[in-house]
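>> received
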Amino acid sequence: MLIVYRKSDKKILFNSGKSYVEPQGMSDINGKLAVIERIGGTFDDYGTFRLHDIDDAEKVDEILRYQNYVNLVFEDDIAVDYEIDYEKYEEDKIKREEQELLNKLNPPQEEVLKAETEIQIITILKECELI
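>> returned
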């Protein structure tokens, strides 16, 4: 697995994912090129962090599972490890679950329209003294 980050703010911009063909990840050059093609910059703007997909399988799986919550750990401006922001992950998980519950409470627009139409029909039938 190859992770490419922007040196200026240490933000992760690219993760090559898992590959059994290239378990060490793609080359630094190809990883940086992928970022440069997408957002611009130069090779010197970006740094890399690498894990071996097989030898470091647990770490790779953890990074993939918590992909949006991974932060790199730096020593002398070089990425040497990573950490997961589990607290932020749990906060976001709770927010997602709350939103899902709220969505279940709000009926779909189709059901609301159907109910409104039924009320209008009943009102018209009452006005015409058909019911």
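>> The mean pLDDT is 93.
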